[in-house]
Design brief:
The complex is a heterodimer of chains A (163) and B (286). Chain A is 36% helix and 17% strand. Chain A has 5 helices and 5 strands, in the order E-E-H-E-E-E-H-H-H-H. Chain A has a 5-stranded mixed sheet, with helices on both faces. The radius of gyration of chain A is 16 Å and the shape is globular. The model of chain A has no long low-confidence stretch (mean pLDDT 96). Chain B has 2 domains: 166 residues, 2-Layer Sandwich (Uridine Diphospho-n-acetylenolpyruvylglucosamine Reductase, domain 3); 109 residues, CO dehydrogenase flavoprotein, C-terminal domain (Enolase-like, domain 1, 2-Layer Sandwich), CATH 3.30.390.50. In chain B, helix 5 runs antiparallel to helix 8 and helix 10 crosses helix 11. The radius of gyration of chain B is 19 Å and the shape is globular. Chain B starts with a strand and ends in a 5-residue tail after the last helix. The chains are: A alpha+beta (163), B alpha+beta (286). Chains A and B meet through strand 4 and helix 3 of A and helix 2 and helix 6 of B.
């Protein structure tokens, strides 16, 4: 194999892998690093099931080459929980039944976390625009929006309490 | 396939020039990787230009703006100064795809992809943007409207690439606006679009540029539409004349997303609305 050797950070941990030059970061994460929370839906950047962060920016892992990630920081859904405690977004997705088949859920969680970091108190319209790159064929989106609103409220309260 | 990530434009130009097979430049990858996935291209070499510092630079000043080829579209919207100088260019660039796509896609990539429906291209042309082209023989500066020849075709030689687009100095009371029509509010491709750039003096249009997207194989500059606005305060008669000129300049395709008659009619509607937005932004009042 004419491979490229890459050192990167995934969810804070240093990783190294060798991949073919044309392999997507999505395939690297799933098949070489066993991070199967990153899902493949369309593979062409339309559905958002493979949403990750790359140096803090929300991107589709299917539209990044594994070879590009040298020295980069990658964040996946596996990095959301801390010390076994689920992220408020994860808690609220369960609480509000914001998923059915679940394949879109990791992408929605990563995208919603990215939104709340930029905008801790988004309007419903802002949430719907920010999540327009994530497709869900089960829920009709409403419960997802409610879960994000509820998690945002909890996170804002948490921040206030910490002060 | 080989993957290279040079750190200078010179090294990138040398890599592209010395490749005998199929070479492609990778910036945001939101078009390139899709085409690779679909099998419509099979590159022997991909040159990632995101490690070239100067290409990651966004310089914003009233005297001129330079948008590096590796600057993701999301960064344009994050610049308050750019939004106030060139609101039309920013709103056009920020309409491309989702937040996920915005984090990767670039305006230079949008230009080089050469889609007739590219959102940022009409706005760049209306702004009078120039592309800085790099090749083995050095650099050249070319008007953005000279880059796209037709769907998927550009005037770049196979060993050339664009390192940045530059917008001219802003003078007086000027503003631009971009509007597109899509059946959905997000994640869609323009059926018709219009970009307008105006400069006013005492509320009267001194100079204007009117550009339509998705109504011909390339973006269309409509000088007669601009002429209809100059010397006016965008009164109804001037706007009607501009709309007629826009419709006369349309040469669209007929497909399930819009018929020829529909696209032609809506082109005038988009141009009228965009002109009024640009006028108001430039400080004009009616």
């Amino acid at each position: 194999m004419n491979g490229v050797t890459v050192s990167a950070k995934v969810n804070g941990d240093a990783v190294q892998y060798v991949c073919p030059a044309d392999e997507s970061l999505l395939d690297v994460l799933r098949n070489r690093l066993n991070l199967t929370g990153v899902k493949e839906g369309c593979g062409t950047g339309d559905c958002g099931a493979c949403s990750i962060t790359l140096d803090g920016r929300l991107v589709c892992a299917c539209l990044v080459l594994g070879a590009e990630a040298e020295g980069r920081e990658i964040g996946t859904v596996e990095g959301l929980s801390e010390g076994g405690k689920l992220h408020p977004l994860q808690e609220e997705f369960i609480e509000k039944a914001a998923l059915q088949c679940g394949i879109c859920t990791p992408g929605f969680l990563v995208a919603a976390k990215s939104l709340l970091e930029r905008n801790p108190n988004p309007t419903e319209e802002e949430i719907r625009y920010a999540l327009a790159g994530n497709l869900c064929r089960c829920t009709g989106y409403d419960k997802i929006v409610r879960a994000v609103q509820s998690a945002a409220k909890i996170m804002r309260r948490g921040k206030k309490a910490a002060r | 396939m080989r993957f290279e990530s040079p750190t200078t434009t010179k090294a990138a130009a040398t890599l592209l020039a010395s490749e005998s097979g199929v070479a492609h430049v990778l910036a945001g990858g939101t078009d390139l990787l899709v085409r690779m996935k679909m099998g419509s291209i099979e590159p022997d070499l991909v040159v990632d230009i995101k490690r070239i510092e100067s290409l990651r630079t966004l310089k914003v000043a009233a005297a001129g703006v330079q948008i590096g080829a590796a600057v993701p579209a999301v960064r344009l919207g994050e610049s308050d100064k750019l939004r106030s100088l060139w609101p039309g260019v920013v709103e056009a660039a920020n309409l491309i795809g989702s937040d996920q796509i915005q984090g990767r896609c670039t305006v230079v990539g949008n230009l080089c992809n050469a889609s007739p429906a590219a959102d940022s291209v009409p706005a760049l042309i209306a702004a009078g943007a120039k592309a800085l082209v790099v090749g083995p023989k050095g650099k050249r500066r070319v008007a953005v409207e000279k880059v796209v020849l037709g769907p998927g075709r550009t005037s770049l030689a196979r060993d050339e690439f664009i390192e940045a687009v530059v917008l001219p100095a802003r003078t007086g009371k000027s503003a631009d606006a971009y509007l597109r029509f899509t059946p959905r509010t997000e994640m869609d491709i323009a059926v018709v679009s219009a970009a307008i750039n105006l400069t006013l003096s005492r509320g009267i249009v001194q100079s204007a540029k009117v550009v339509l997207g998705a109504v011909a194989p390339t973006a269309v500059i409509v000088p007669a539409a601009a002429k209809a606005l100059i010397g006016t305060k965008l009164d109804d008669a001037a706007l009607d004349k501009m709309v007629a000129a826009c419709r006369a300049a349309c040469n669209p395709i007929d497909d399930k997303r819009g018929t020829i008659a529909y696209r032609t009619k809506v082109a005038g509607v988009m141009a009228r609305r965009a002109a009024l937005i640009a006028y108001e932004r430039a400080g004009g009042s009616k």
